[in-house]
TrEMBL record:
GO terms for cellular component: membrane
GO biological process: glucosylceramide catabolic process
Species this protein is from: Pedobacter hiemivivus
Family membership noted in the UniProt record: Belongs to the glycosyl hydrolase 30 family.
Coiled-coil regions, chain positions: none
Protein name: Glucosylceramidase
Domain Glycosyl hydrolase family 30 TIM-barrel: 68-401
Pfam families assigned to the protein according to its UniProt record, in alphabetical order: Glyco_hydro_30, Glyco_hydro_30C
Biological classification of the source: Bacteria, Pseudomonadati, Bacteroidota, Sphingobacteriia, Sphingobacteriales
Domain Glycosyl hydrolase family 30 beta sandwich, first and last residues per copy: 404-456
GO terms, molecular function: glucosylceramidase activity
Keywords from the UniProt entry: Glycosidase, Hydrolase, Signal
Length: 465
């Protein structure tokens, strides 16, 4: 009897040890019917040597791709104004929720600023506005003025919460006196002002650094093939190459700036643009990579550019994501499948959506071309905050795929779009979007073991182990 008892106890200890050593996974879920909105699910899933439930997502951490800089949003002047109108207590709570990395926060890790005004400002401005006919070649009159009222104070609060956040900045237009037409919309940069404009970039980066705001990267021009926005500029690929190789690159080098130079910053329908610029050997030596939006073209174009110049980085820097005020469902799979998964699977180091905040009227925006339908990740009216689809789509990645993570291989079964990462602390993250007409049972295979899961129609889940 004593022998049988010992055998029984040994068996129980072995089972207990196996259970403790079994790899467990947690997961966060957003359901399309809004019954669950980015919430951690109770209990843990366990990887076992069990029969696979078809289809199977096979995650392979031995095959790696690009490293990740972060996920986030643009912070426009309008966004900053909405935040500043909140009470200090409510604003601090919201900024911590957005940018901190604690249990209940989503941990935005990348932000995009505008150099001067964008179309989501109340009015158009640059940092060197002069009457028509006047010039300032040395940027003696350069002044961050308007940004000191809204963007800079908010950025300082964000940096106090997350001092490691990376910041990219993009211009919508140079000062009007540098353009072929003295108009915020359209026109081109006059060649005689290329050098002055390079000094404008240098002043911006240095003056922001003085404010305690380090600019990690700049793009040359937001949407250089869309001169109808307000403000905007037409800058064709050959001109962008000339500006970089003759003016901006040498100016950065002379000033000792480590800020990255990123080209294009427009839709995926024109991969020939960044490839043309990168084909110029004198320009490419100053260029870190290319940036994309997805208002046109296919996300796979990012891979085309990567394959043409595999030593240069890829960034996804803008996409408006909106939902109706009365929607009883949340179309979470659309931005997650197209952007979070799509851009990441096509070599992008970032996924940024447009933009951080709006009010219920989507104001402010400029006249003669500003965006009247651009909804923020959060809608702010006073201290009332509504979290929109952009918030939840970025949260599914930003909270878990921290900067320094590396994309790892995973196959894509039909209707189960996904992307996988290895984080700096050794965790694995898998983001899955179900675009099938019904819920799906499926397995996650990792290192010879299986995790059996079910995901509802139109739902998105992030699995962590």
């Amino acid at each position: 009897m004593r022998l049988n008892l010992n055998i029984f106890l040994s068996g129980m200890l072995l089972i207990s040890a196996l259970h403790v050593n079994a790899q467990q996974a947690s997961y966060w879920l957003t359901k399309s019917d809004r019954s669950v909105l980015f919430a951690k699910q109770q209990g843990s899933l366990v990887f076992n040597k069990q029969e696979s439930v078809k289809p199977t997502i096979i995650v392979n951490d031995k095959e790696t791709f690009q490293s990740i800089d972060g996920f986030g949003f643009a912070l426009t002047g309008g966004s900053a104004q909405h935040l500043l109108k909140m009470s200090a207590k409510a604003r601090t709570a919201l900024l911590k929720e957005l940018f901190a990395t604690n249990k209940n926060d989503i941990g935005i890790s990348y932000i995009r600023l505008t150099i001067g005004a964008s179309d989501l400002n109340e009015k158009v401005f640059s940092y060197n506005d002069l009457p028509e006919g006047e010039t300032d070649l040395e940027q003696d009159k350069f002044e961050l003025g308007p940004d000191r009222v809204d963007v800079i104070p908010i950025m300082k609060e964000i940096l106090a919460i997350n001092p490691n956040i990376k910041i990219m900045s993009s211009p919508w237009s140079p000062p009007l006196w540098m353009k072929t037409t003295y108009d915020a919309r359209g026109g081109m940069l006059k060649p005689e002002f290329y050098e002055a404009y390079a000094k404008y970039f240098v002043r911006y980066i240095k003056d922001m650094k003085t404010e305690g705001i380090p600019i990690d990267a700049v793009t040359i021009q937001n949407e250089p093939l869309h001169p109808g926005n307000n403000p905007s500029l037409l800058m064709v690929a050959p001109d962008q190459a000339i500006f970089i190789k003759n003016n901006l690159g040498p100016a950065f080098k002379k000033a000792g700036l480590a800020t990255k130079i990123i080209i294009y910053d427009h839709n995926a329908d024109r991969p020939d643009y960044p490839i043309t610029v990168l084909n110029d050997p004198e320009a490419r030596k100053y260029i870190d990579g290319s940036a994309f939006h997805l208002y046109g073209g296919k996300i796979e174009a990012l891979t085309d550019v990567h394959e043409a110049h595999p030593d240069k980085n890829i960034y996804f820097t803008e996409q408006m994501v909106i939902e109706g005020a009365e929607d009883d469902k949340i179309n979470i799979i659309s931005p997650v499948k197209r952007l979070i998964i799509g851009a990441s699977r096509n070599w992008s180091k970032t996924v940024l959506e447009w933009n951080l905040t709006s009010n219920s009227e989507n104001k402010p925006f400029t006249d003669r071309g500003g965006c009247s339908m651009c909804q923020g990740a959060v809608t702010i009216d006073g201290d009332h905050v509504k979290r929109n689809v952009a918030y939840y789509s970025v949260a599914h990645a930003a909270k878990f795929v921290r900067p320094g993570s590396v994309r790892i291989a995973s196959n894509e079964p039909k209707d189960l779009s996904n992307v996988a990462f290895k984080t700096p602390d050794g965790k694995n993250v898998l983001i899955v979007a179900n675009s099938a007409a019904d819920s799906q049972a499926f397995s996650i295979s990792f290192n010879g073991k299986l995790l059996n899961c079910t995901i509802g129609k139109g739902d998105v889940a992030t699995y962590i182990w």
